[in-house]
Every structure is written in structure tokens, then in C-alpha cells.
Amino acid sequence: MNIAVILAGGVGNRLGAGIPKQFVEVLGKPVLAYTIEEFQKHPEIDRILVVCVKPYLQYMEELKTKYNFTKLVWLTAGGATFQESMLNGVRFLEDKIARKDIVLFHFGASPFITENIISDVIRVCSEKGNAISTTDFLLLSGKKKTTDSTADPNNYSDEYINRDTVAVMNTPHAFRYGFICDLYKEAIQTGIIDTVEPHTTTLMYAMGKQIYFSYGSQTNIKITRKEDLDLFEGYVLMKQRRDNSQ
Fold first, then answer.
1. Does 2-142+167-234 carry CATH code 3.40.50.700?
2. Of 36, 40, 88, 107, which residue has the fewest beta carbons closer than 10 angstroms?
3. CA–CA distances in Å: residue 131 to residues 118, 166, 178
4. Domain map of the chain by residue range?
């Protein structure tokens, strides 16, 4: 069985919309609904769990009915961080699925996801035990002097990074359920989880795990800023025009 876990527990302060970015509407429809829709219609996805920011759980029930998300069978509350929301999702499924099942984790605010990205992350995970949608880095790259934003006028770069060595990772992440359960159990028992940035990939690196690549696309961005919403609106209109012409 393949289960999609949609992570919708964040508040998205950088967007400045006043509500969590995954619930901002584009052409009358919440971003999160567009994201869920891609997993709902994918033939290899059997069940969907949404890990949702707690005050919006009832609203999620309404969206499930409104858009007829028949595969959305579970809802649970998110945590204060990405890692907590991941853990909430993993633990929620403990008595519901088998260790051999594949679990795909995807950001609710990443609605550019496509069928071929989902299909390939399932394929690679079936072979390797884990997979992450990944692309090569195609732009000129330099190391920032500090970890501050490039918008900081005092930040700069004086060190080149060979872009051919860089893998740009995105969601979905896919794991055999037993693998992700064991990973977090070990990370908590050893305390490693408290020493790395709150992300599953950084946790895997710290624990010496290999991360396998599946197909990715540069268009599969996470909505973070206002211009991302504008880009997604244009993307939706393009798809509608293309579908109407067929």
C-alpha cells in the first residue's frame, strides 16, 4: 500500500497572508486542495493522511467533503516544527499500516507536484527503501559568507561551489514505513535528533544513511512568497487552457 502524508502544519509567516499559506485561495480554491488533488487522482496512491495545523482540522473536514477527496481517510494535528509534524504523521500510522508499506511525505504548500514525480518516487523507494525527488543544480553557485539571507547587504560570496556536485532535494520524500519508524526511534534514543536541523534529510546524513534520488522538476516549488502564488495562478490557468483545448 502507498500512503501520501501531506504536511500542512506550518503557518507560513513569510507569505504575509494572515492565514497559513496552504489555505490561501488561488482562483477560489485553497492551495492545499490543489496539492491533495494530485495524490487523490494518482492510481498508485491508496490512502492520504493530512497532518494539519490544529485550528484548521474542522476546515479540512469541509474541504474533504467539498472536493470529494475519497482517499483522504485520516487527519491529525501537526507540530510546532517540520520534524514534529513528521513524527506526528509517522506515529499516527503506527497501528494502521504495515512496515513494508510506502509512505510519501509532501508539503501541502507544494501544489506543482505532478503524476510522474509521484510515480518515480514510489518506483525508486520500492527498489531502494527510500527516495527523494531531486534535480541537478543548473545555476552558478557560490558559498555565502554567512547563513543570513542574500538580501542582507553585508553578506557576500567569495567561494565557488561546483554545481555538478550539488543535488537539489524536494518533496515528496518516500520511505518504507519500517525504515522511517526505525530511523526516528534510533534518532530519539541516541539524541541525534536534537543536534541537527529539523529535517529528515539532515537527520539521515547525521546517521550515515544513503538518500536515493528519484525524478524531480524545477517547477515543483514550495509556495513561500507572494510571487510564488502569482506563479501558481498562472500555472493553473495554463493547465485549464490546455485541458479545454483538448
1. no
2. 40
3. 11, 17, 14
4. 2-142+167-234
